[in-house]
Amino acid sequence: MTLMSNAPRFALGQMVATPGALALLEQTGFSALALISRHVHGDWGDCCVEDKATNELSVQQGMRVMSVYRLVDAERLQQTPQDKRSCLPTIWIITEANRSVTTLLLPEDY
After folding, report:
1. Which GO terms describe its molecular function (predicted)?
2. H-helix or E-strand containing 67?
């Protein structure tokens, strides 16, 4: 269970997005603002348990934070086996360690 509050957990810095990420957001109808809000409030999306733990440590120690969002409805996400989810439309959000920039990107943009 993820607990969320209204207070951001870390600074985002400048927010930028790759052209591919913007195109996918438009195509799927997902909101960049909603995903960024989830990210900054500690909802890391479809990260594995180890990456979620790393993010928690990263917030405390000022390291890079990364979230993974599958741009499908909750039912489709639940029905997709974990090892097949990388085939779903995906946005990564990465906030740099120095908190100067937060980037929305496709995995292949990395």
Report:
1. endonuclease activity
2. strand 65-70
